[in-house]
Amino acid sequence: MATHEYNPDEVRKRRIKGRRKRKLREWFVFTGYLTPSLLGVLLFFFGPMLIVLVQSFQRSSTNTEFVGFDNYVHVWNNQAFKTAATNTFIFAGIAVPLAVLLALLLALLLSSKIPGKSVFRSIMLNPMMVPVASIVLIWQVMFSYNGALNTYMGWFGIDKIDWMKSDWSRLVILILFLWKNLGYNMVLFISAISAVPQEQLESAKMDGASAVRRFFSIKLPYLWPTIFFVGIMSLINSFKIFREVYLLAGDYPFDALYMLQNFMNNMFSHLDNAKLTAAAIIMCIAMIIIVGILFIAENRLGRDTEE
Amino acid sequence: MKKNEITPLQPMPEKVMEEQHDHGSIRDIKEVEIVRLSDEELEEMHERARAVAKRKAVVRNATSKFWTALGTLLAIAVAAFALMPIVLTILDSFMSTDEIKTNYSAVYNSLSSAAAETKTYLSSTPKLKMIPDMVSFSQYKTLLFLSPTYLLKFWNSVALVVPIVFGQLMVGCLAAYSFSRYRRKRREVLFFSYVILMLMPFQVTLVPNYLIANWLGIYNTWWAIILPGVFSTFSVYLLSKYMRQIPSSYIEAAKLDGANEWNIFTKISLPMCKSAIYAMAILLFIDYWNMVEQPLILLENESKQPLSVFLSQINASEIGVAFAASFIFMLPPLLIFLYGEQYLVEGISRSGIK
């Protein structure tokens, strides 16, 4: 640092210049690494999303007249959209909390002292690997009107239920959803539980805290971040239930199973751009709101546990 | 077992008590009468304490055994539920066509809407048969040698999924590295928008994908699915979460040794995230192997669709082959699972940790 003629201003200037240069080079290098992804994301997602936004205010893809919120109003008042949105949100509202809760219970079970834990974990993780399309046949055999489940129920004198064409269908897809997603959620919880400090648990045990008490007072605070993560992942996956619905019931399922994706598919096949874009924007906003609420809630709770 | 150990009872030395008293301890010890025990009495007390501890231990062991047994039973039940459809599919694929038809034709009659009136078809009750009467490989023979459609669709699935997995991993690793090393405010905002994009369901993202596919003229080609798949941000998010956990001292040390960013990327970040990358590859593979939404909308041409969509369009006349096709379709992910389970578990586990 010390030169023959020490000139503090000169040194500072040079240092600032050097820092700026280094910063610029840093920016260049790291932006370079990001470029392929960024270009792709801009081209395939963010860019066209803007077009979607613009088109949602136009009469149709050929007639670019500005119509304000007309398309939104049309979609909003569309009976099919209402049904689809209600079904999707009812499903998510039931399935997501259940998926979190049951997975947590399973994880607690597999973190306890039962034998063969890793075998159970592997088996329970299996459904996640299996494509829905492969399993659909068995579900059909189970749940169709002349299916196995109705036959078995007949043995006990229970009347047949038309599983796929009544309100019971909600229960059916709930079961399929849980079947597929519990394993993944459970693994997330198992690792979170194993990260809970053992000393605290031990000392609580010594002090005579019951297992329930230990869970609520010690484990739960550590698990909140994971609970939210699992919740968000389950929420994303709950929107994918369309796969099961489509593969089981086709394009026109029973009313209770009519999901947003079914609605979108019909819009696609009618090439109804105006409704399609408006619906996409509505869903996008709804999604951002939901995720935002979850993030804020997580931050609040996270802060509480840190204190 | 720490808790079952019996610490020998010893009368507290007087001195200590006084000390405690002097310091104004919480317990009011003034009243306590200090009893000096003879050796026999001491021994007797030990004996009694041991007996009590033993009894307690027996009870505790019994209850804990009871809970363990109950838990194991529960786990077995859940595991059976998880495995049942998979096992049934596999076993049923070894039935002969006739056997499947006698067992399941009633099911399929009630499924097809055209035959809705035949709900009175009660005479033949379908059974879930676990074990085929006669193991036959005829389904596989039909599938592999006599019906090329299935193999074609299988190949379609491979051709769609493999480029997506490799492409997204390459793009994703680079971007994740950038996000993990360069953390300025505006970058964090961009990262957050990546996360939002990752969370968007297909219902939202398919619309822009559709528009751009039309604009680029790749609608109804595999590219319409592959390209958005490659640039999907899921792997960027998870991989950069991993790379941020790499201790910065490693990177500083490499820098001091004169490593440039590319060296750090290839010699430190990538090797340290190896398990995450494997896990990511597995997750991506199963996700895209399972895809239904994208091909339904972006591929009009049925001959280009993957097996995941095609399997649902099997009609009653082909149910024999369908089980075999289902099994072959689930085979690649299951094999990958067998091979890479520990990576997958580790990858999933660490993705949940902040």
Give the CATH architecture of the largest domain in chain B. Orthogonal Bundle
Largest sheet of chain A: none
Please give the most extensive interface between any two protein chains, plus how many residues each contributes.
A-B, 102 and 106 residues
Indicate how many domains the architecture of chain B comprises.
Answer: 2
Instruction: Give the class-level CATH name of the largest domain in chain A.
Output: Mainly Alpha
Structural class of chain A: mainly alpha
Q: What's the name of the CATH homologous superfamily of the largest domain in chain A?
A: MetI-like
In one word, what is the shape of chain A? flat
**What percent of residues of chain A are in strands?**
under 5%
Describe the protein in words.
With 307 residues, chain A is mainly alpha-helical. Chain A has 2 domains: 55 residues; 228 residues, MetI-like (MetI-like fold, Orthogonal Bundle), CATH 1.10.3720.10. Chain A has 12 helices and no strands. In chain A, helix 3 crosses helix 11, helix 5 packs across helix 10 and helix 7 packs across helix 9. The mean pLDDT of chain A is 85. With 354 residues, chain B is mainly alpha-helical. Chain B has 2 domains: 52 residues, no CATH class; 211 residues, MetI-like fold (Orthogonal Bundle). Chain B contains 15 helices and no strands. In chain B, 36% of the residues are buried. Classes of the chains: A mainly alpha (307), B mainly alpha (354). Chains A and B meet through helix 1, helix 3, helix 4, helix 5 and helix 6 of A and helix 2, helix 3, helix 5, helix 6 and helix 7 of B.
Task: State the main characteristics.
heterodimer; A: 307 residues; 12 helices; B: 354 residues; mainly alpha; MetI-like fold
Please outline the helices and strands.
The complex is a heterodimer of chains A (307) and B (354).
Chain A: H1 8-55, H2 70-77, H3 79-111, H4 117-129, H5 132-143, H6 148-155, H7 168-194, H8 198-206, H9 211-238, H10 242-249, H11 260-270, H12 273-306
Chain B: H1 14-22, H2 39-92, H3 97-111, H4 138-146, H5 148-181, H6 185-199, H7 202-216, H8 223-230, H9 234-243, H10 248-256, H11 261-272, H12 274-289, H13 293-298, H14 307-310, H15 319-351
